[in-house]
Amino acid sequence: MPILRPIQHMTTTDFLIIEPFLHDALEARTLQAAFELGIIDALESSADVPVSQVLRGRSCDAAGGKFLLQVLARSGAVQLDGASVQITETFRAALRFRDLLLTKLQFSELVAADFFNRMPQLLSSSEEFMETSKLFELFDYGRCFEITPQNCLKAARWMKLTTTLTRYEAPVCVEHFDFSAHQKMLDLGGNSGEFAIQVCRRIPSLQACVADLPVVCHVGARHVAEQQMSDRIQFRPLNFTQDSIPDGHDLITCKSVLHDWPDEYATHIIGSVFNALPVGGRFLIFERQQWDFQTEPTPYGSLPVMLFFRSYRKPEFYTSSLEAAGFRGVTVQTICLDLPFMLISATK
Length: 348
Ligand SMILES: C[S@@+](CC[C@H](N)C(=O)[O-])C[C@H]1O[C@@H](n2cnc3c(N)ncnc32)[C@H](O)[C@@H]1O
Hints:
This protein has 348 residues and is α/β, with parallel strands linked by helices. The chain has 15 helices and 10 strands. The strands form 2 sheets. A 7-stranded mixed beta sheet has the order 6-5-4-7-8-10-9, with helices on both faces. Bound molecules: S-adenosylmethionine.
């Protein structure tokens, strides 16, 4: 019997329901194993399953299966009831965001070694750490200039992380900024076009251009075509540290881009954006802000973004750089998602 549930009103932050399942490293890693063993699929499609049945034919022995189910029960993903097991209502609701849950689990596993095996290098020097880090090996922008099948394959791997996070972060941004006041948006460092897709879907009058490195644009154009958005979203390959930023747009956005760059480069990009905008045009910056590890949570599921802890800034850097470049009407909003974001807008 399929399980029928009433349709619930959705909000843009509903996806945060996955966070408690990603907080503790052991619980999250065990959950990932349960997905890989097909146990979550088996439980999702039924109301109540005998433990022996759910473990039958899986690559785990009886003690391993018991350990797995007990850890899942402690995390709140399942309920163990004598000899049977069922998925909890909260976890069933979290499974609506399966793509985000799985992506965060996979990337956290990938970078866990960066934290747990190489903590001294992580603490001592970012350069030395970056040479050996799994995450920075993956995010190799140096291989995004020449379009080759191998470079596209490599880029597509890390673009999966940025695309999936952005799929859920972009709608929150749309809720806090009036995109409908604009006709032509340029998303600088716009990656796979996912931010543009999410904005354009909500703002039917908007046209978008995504500017990024050549390989990223190549892979992104495929993604946009798959989403049937190629008539509204174009790509423009460029290197924004050298090339001028194309004009003809009344809104330029930079989501999770500027933190990647040292102060002098970030300031340079802000100046180039100012030059590219018409008078009255607006610039929107949306990215994670520096957070305080003493008071903010440090969930396992956020290990990939936490690795950039040296890069995140406070809003003041951007407000003063924007004003120095000539922008006016600078506004700052702080938005708490899994971690705090800042949304900064300014007018030329
Ligand atoms: C952290 S990702 C953020 C991607 C996207 N805005 C998002 O939030 O999902 C930074 C983006 O900047 C792009 N980028 C890095 N260096 C660049 C450069 N020199 N010129 C143009 N784009 C660049 C990367 O390819 C990547 O897509």
